[in-house]
Amino acid sequence: MAYDYVARAKVLAEALPYIQKYSGKTVVVKYGGNAMVSEELRDAVMSDVILLHLVGIHVVLVHGGGPEINAMLKKIGKESKFVDGLRYTDQETIDVVQEVLCGKVNKNLVAALNRRGGRAMGLCGIDGGLFQAKIKDPKYGLVGEITHVNPDVVVDCLEKGYIPVISTVAQGCDAECSYNINADTAASKLAIALKAEKLVLLTDVRGLLMDPKDESTLIPEIRMSDVPMLKKKGVISGGMIPKVECCVEAVRWGVKRSHILDGRIHHSILIELLSEQPMGTMML
Question: pLDDT at residue 73 above 70?
Answer without folding.
Answer: yes
